[in-house]
Amino acid sequence: xxxxxxxxxxxxxxxxxxxxxxxxxxxxxxxxxxxxxxxxxxxxxxxxxxxxxxxxxxxxxxxxxxxxxxxxxxxxxxxxxxxxxxxxxxxxxxxxxxxxxxxxxxxxxxxxxxxxxxxxxxxxxxxxxxxxxxxxxxxxxxxxxxxxxxxxxxxxxxxxxxxxxxxxxxxxxxxxxxxxxxxxxxxxxxxxxxxxxxxxxxxxxxxxxxxxxx
Length: 214
Hints:
9 helices, mainly alpha
């Protein structure tokens, strides 16, 4: 609701004095931080009476926390740890973690709570995000490579890929991705393969462990 109020003030081009007076008349408070949820709802109703109209549509949040969370969410979908890759499912998960109606309105200082929750889901699914020796965050290329190896391992365990296949075998023979590159694969190459392997995982109906229903 705090986010909605800030959007409303901007939309109405309300000056500080008028806003502060309305806030006090509506809640008896001089700051939003002093208001409870019921009082914030009253402020929103007052702003709507002044002409505020919430904008239609639910565009994607595009701040750094949202982009990182979205990338993790989609990777977890490829792995089978979540069963719905949609933006709405991510928004619902983020709301439970952050207590904020929209990811777009979330405080960036709270980013670690959402990201750590997603990393915990990854760890439960076997996708480790940090180096076991140094404890440092893995680089994007290594992360995506390990994700591909983990999905392939699940396919092998289900008998959907031979035990001796490597990633390049699976890329071509299972997913139809031809690797004609002389250079090592990039994070984007591995991301593409993870998506393709994830489709095969869902196509074969391989059961996911520790999946999230959102």
